[in-house]
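From: lab user (bench 3)
To: helpdesk
Subject: output format question, protein + magnesium ion

Hello, I'm new to running complex predictions and I'm not sure whether the block I got back is the full result or only part of it. Here's what I submitted:
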Amino acid sequence: AATIGITIGATLEAQHTRRQLELAEERTAVLAVAAERERIGRDLHDILGHSLTTIAVKADLAERLIGRDDDALRTEIRQLAEIARQSLSDVRATASGMREVRLGPELAAARAVLLAAGVAPITPRSLPQLGDDTSELFGYVVREGVTNVVRHADATRCVIECDSSGISVADDGVGITGPGEGSGIAGLRTRLDAAGGTFEVESTPQGTRITARLGTTP
Amino acid sequence: AATIGITIGATLEAQHTRRQLELAEERTAVLAVAAERERIGRDLHDILGHSLTTIAVKADLAERLIGRDDDALRTEIRQLAEIARQSLSDVRATASGMREVRLGPELAAARAVLLAAGVAPITPRSLPQLGDDTSELFGYVVREGVTNVVRHADATRCVIECDSSGISVADDGVGITGPGEGSGIAGLRTRLDAAGGTFEVESTPQGTRITARLGTTP
Amino acid sequence: MITIVIAEDQALIRAALATMLNLEDDLEVIGQAADCRAALDTVLAGTPDILLLDVQMPDGGLGVDDGLEIVPMVREAAPSTRVIVLTTFGRPGYLRRALEAGASGFLVKDTPANRLVEGIRRVARGLRVVDPELAAASLSLGVSPLSPK
Ligand SMILES: Nc1ncnc2c1ncn2[C@@H]1O[C@H](COP(=O)(O)OP(=O)(O)OP(=O)(O)O)[C@@H](O)[C@H]1O
Ligand SMILES: Nc1ncnc2c1ncn2[C@@H]1O[C@H](COP(=O)(O)OP(=O)(O)OP(=O)(O)O)[C@@H](O)[C@H]1O
Ligand SMILES: [Mg+2]
Ligand SMILES: [Mg+2]
Ligand SMILES: [Mg+2]
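Helpdesk reply: Thanks, we reran it on our side. This is the complete output you should expect:
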């Protein structure tokens, strides 16, 4: 009876844990989204609130200057057009900034995900100077590689190495045991092909390493 | 030994569950943030890119009209100001996190707005249980109705009544004197139509009442 | 004549507002300020009928967090000056703080010129003006992503 009691207790505990964690999961997602929104909200505020307000106020002023002072009117309208154009380029930069993948932020996110998953992250202390295209490409390698480590590897550590011509993500997990490639690895292979580089997956029961190399111009 | 074995097994299972769920949690958060970012980026770009471009073009045109055609100039400047204000309110909506509309919070906000505007709010002490759709619909009725009271009615009190099948917002103000419906009332009518319900505006010089009723399934 | 001081750190907006208000026959902008301390000094020097007050402004060494914090100081030192708070975005708590501090008006900065002018006249007559949509945003009680940490 004691045995059964303890076992049931532990199972109930597992259920409870599961429940708690599902709740926590939801909360985390909501909070993360809220934090991100807050950040973007502030950016928006700073970038656009001022500009659009200035445009509206200047337009009202301009309307009142019609027929009264053409020179002042011209100045207001020119400034207003300039502000609109400047804001437009700010919006473009911000909007694409929200969509873009870059190595630096991906590494930071990767560390956080790995730590949260109980995998020790070993990542480069400093990053090479990379063009936008390469930074994006390497960012995708990190994102997919680390997602796979967290999902499939059952690893205790994950080592990311990088120089200006290549990047690798290695873990000490169980290695690839499944049937083969899903869309994650296939996608990376396609990206590297398109960039004229190479992509390699090495896997043993001691762990997995993926390596992306840029094409060498010989 | 058997007892201990089983217990340890269950505990390990609990730990594993915990671990798995933490992973799921982190993934969810990361994905949710990425999705939200992308969505806001898109919204931002779509909403503002067009408006700012239009503003810039209209400003250029306006500059050319100075001293040549004051009427056309005035029209351009007014349209431009209007676009700037509309964009600002779009930014406000985006920045405030696309707060979902629900009856409870809207009523609380309505009370506060009415009080601040010097109109005595008389609102239900308790709310009926409502599904999300109905709660949202009634929330919109309160939001627009109260905004109209504060803006147009010159009222001293505003009575909001609600049950599970309908809601009304009534004031003791001057009644509708203007030419007719703006987009606020038209919008409510459309929402109620879409929900298979009815929407009614009653107005006398002693005040205005709007009433939304859900469709009855006879 | 209704006399006005404009306190606003963004020079383009401040200048446009000043020029625009001065075009009205019954309004006169008698001073401008770009931070909280200057706002207080300018009000004390000229005791205007109306102070148009931005919320997010540098403190100018006064040791306040934002423009709303100088409303009570203005009310105390120049009781005849009525305060209209102007802001770009409503944030939770702004409206309540503004009204509790003794402000008479609460408007978005891009309030159309004729409504702003009308609002100034109303406040000068002792009435209160509150932008309803801004009020709704500033009062939202739920967790707002823009609420201060
Ligand atoms: N680091 C790793 N450790 C162990 N197994 C791995 C690792 N990376 C990949 N795998 C195995 O290789 C398979 C293919 O990976 P791939 O990333 O292509 O697809 P996936 O992760 O299953 O799905 P997705 O398309 O969402 O990425 C995985 O299903 C998994 O079985
Ligand atoms: N409670 C009310 N008291 C007096 N007049 C009202 C009231 N509600 C509406 N009105 C009048 O009816 C008109 C139409 O209202 P409606 O909400 O459709 O448009 P609006 O408030 O002018 O603009 P918006 O599109 O921003 O809501 C208003 O312009 C106003 O003249
Ligand atoms: Mg994968
Ligand atoms: Mg309306
Ligand atoms: Mg400011």
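A quick orientation on your result: The helical segments of chain A are 2-65, 70-99, 103-116, 132-153, 183-194. Let us know if anything else is unclear.
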